[in-house]
Amino acid sequence: MTPTLVRNQLGADASAPADAGTRARDWAEIQERMLAPLYEAVYDRMEVGAATRMLSLGCGSGLAMLVAAARGAHVTGVDSDRERLALARARLLPDAGWDDAPAHSPHPARRRARLLEEGRPAPAGADGAPYNLITVFEPIGCAAGDSEGLVPALRSAVPLAVRGASVVLTSWGPPERCATAAVLRVAARLAESARPPRTEPGRWRPTLRDDLEDVAARAGLKPDGSGRVSCPFGYADVGSAVRGLLSTGLFDAAVRATDRSQVEKEVAEALHPYRREDGTVWMPNVFRYLVCVT
């Protein structure tokens, strides 16, 4: 059920993760909801409501947009993952053809939501009003190179917003505050086990304190406050936890370096300290957001 934690493009490798449709469903049905407290905290702080015209970069399967639309906001989402966009369409408005619905459409969701495939222009709403909030709910800071595509995306999006619009960036919190970091270290170890070692973007690395400030500076944004939000990852069982975590993309380099079954086995083993007596898995995490102005 939002955007990916980290989403990497996959090649046609025999060791690649499960098919894109299964991966997208695992994200939407298992993993995306883990970030719901982050969405709510940001929307509370930004006072998201009927006056909000939000552009969501990397909107994924649309949960963050759905939460904003429920508050009355007009939302536009952009993403490169067609499978996740299809799920976002089904979630936000199951009727066919809603993207191009006229502003006078009787269905309120048709007036408040749009989805665009990344690579296409992302103009403001049909009535010509510019955006006043840009959000990036794909947390950075947990994989090498995970912010490289974000800076140009922000530079392209900012001209579509009003002067002084708010931009919210998100990242993982300090590793010592994120139980999931211990499991993600499995990804780094397996990726490094390849011979020769893999050095491509997407390999896990510890979050740095100034990751968000660095992105803001490179995108020409002015920081204007920040916050931290508790986002525990809770799963019904170890199998669900493995599927959810692998849907994030953070284990892609490990899968390419070894194979999916090996990664699943080692992730399951790394989850044992977080398994409770009833079989559920519970991992406390903290995420950080940075509010900027254009």
List the helices and strands and how they pair.
Layout: H1 20-31, H2 36-46, E1 53-57, H3 63-70, E2 74-79, H4 82-92, H5 108-112, E3 113-117, E4 131-140, H6 150-157, E5 161-172, H7 180-192, H8 211-218, E6 222-230, E7 233-235, H9 238-246, H10 252-257, H11 260-270, E8 281-283, E9 286-293
Parallel strand pairs: 1-2, 1-4, 2-3, 4-5
Antiparallel strand pairs: 5-9, 6-9, 7-8
Q: What structural class results from the helix and strand content?
A: alpha/beta
Rg calc: 19 Å
Q: Helix fraction?
A: 25-40%
Which residue ranges are poorly predicted, with pLDDT under 50 across at least 5 consecutive positions?
1-16, 96-108
What is the mean pLDDT? 84
Biggest sheet: strands side by side, in what order? 3-2-1-4-5-9-6
Distinct helical segment count: 11
Q: What portion of residues belong to β-strands?
A: 15-25%
Shape: globular
| Largest pleated sheet | 7 strands, mixed
N-to-C terminal Cα separation, in Å?
Answer: 29 Å
Compressed to H and E, one letter per element, the order equals HHEHEHHEEHEHHEEHHHEE
Q: How many strand segments? A: 9
Structural overview:
The protein has helices spanning 20-31, 36-46, 63-70, 82-92, 108-112, 150-157, 180-192, 211-218, 238-246, 252-257, 260-270; strands at residues 53-57, 74-79, 113-117, 131-140, 161-172, 222-230, 233-235, 281-283, 286-293. The chain is α/β, with parallel strands linked by helices and 294 residues long. Strand 4 (131-140), helix 6 and strand 5 (161-172) form a beta-alpha-beta unit. Helix 1 (20-31) crosses helix 9. The two termini are 29 Å apart. Mean pLDDT is 84; it is low at 1-16 and 96-108.
